[in-house]
Amino acid sequence: MKKYRAHIALIAANIFFGINYPIAKGLMPDYLQPIEIIFLRAGISAILFFILQRFFFFEKTEKKDLFPLALCGLFGVSINQLLFFEGLNLSTSIDASIIMAIIPVMVLIISVIYIKEKLTISKSVGIILGAMGAIVTIVYGKELSSGSDQLKGNIFLFINAFSYSIYFVIVKPLMEKYNPFTVMKWTFLFGFLFIIPFSSHAFANVNWATFNIFTWSALAYVIIATTFFAYLLIAFSMKTVNPGVASFYIYLQPVIASILAMIMYDEKITIVKICSALMIFTGVYMVSRKIRIRKNA
Question: In the chain, what are the domain boundaries?
């Protein structure tokens, strides 16, 4: 029963994430800049997790675990969200969701390095296919110069995916040890602290008077649904499943994001994007079979 609940939680979280691409895209840059969204997203989530953990799920945290929890905040919140929103602001919802689909491949690479996961021929081929698909998505049809906004955005998204993959591997042993609310409290607290130095100018130029019911609803969705609930659902699921399985559900995001992006922003799905997505999906399938996460000796 726990496994079924974990898989349902993963499906729900990735549906939230898939819807987030076009919703967040609509907020930038006309209403909010990326750093402003991130400040609100991380700060409010940190407060919510702190209150819930303190009064309903309180447990003590060992001092030796504060450093890995700080790394979770660094890679899972600050770097991840800074580069995701900056990248999404410059790129498209469809490109962003395709690039994020390479996360399971990156999880395997990190697992090979961090916990000595065995690298088979099948998984090696999967890594190559996934990498090729990501490269095609990042560079195809973009001006190959440092001034190309969409190319720069796609590179930000790729680094963001790598950062989030590191988080997946680091957070697993912590989730096995603590309540999800405890891990999320520290993760978002540290993540928010890392963001503060980059957000000193946040809200200086925000024209709140231009916000309407749809703008506020979109911002609430980004903060509550895709941050608080989605992160909590993934944390809950990772008490039962390993990072490879959890990251596999990212498959859902490009499908949902692409459909909504075509409806909301008239974004186009080209043959090249379909082929690159299939390359990534095939690579993910090859590396996701029988991924095992073993504890360090």
Answer: 2-288
Mean pLDDT within 77-103: 84
Q: Which two tokens stand for residue 58?
A: 């309180």
Look at residue 137 in the predicted model and tell me its pLDDT: 65
Best CA proximity match to 172, nearest among 103, 249, 81, 69: 69
Instruction: Tell me the one-letter amino acid at 109.
Output: I
Q: Exposed, middle or buried, 114 (CB in 10 Å: 0-12/13-18/19+)?
A: middle
Better-scored residue on pLDDT, 57 or 284: 57
Chain position carrying tokens 């000595």: 116
> How many CA within 13 A on the CB side of residue 42?
29
Instruction: With a cut of 80, say whether residue 230 has pLDDT above it.
Output: yes
Rounded CA-CA distance 296/87 in Å is 34
| pLDDT of the residue at 218 | 93
Q: Decide if 165 contacts 106 (C-beta within 8 A).
A: yes
- Exposure string for 225-234, b = 16+ CB within 10 A, e = fewer: bbbbbbbbbb
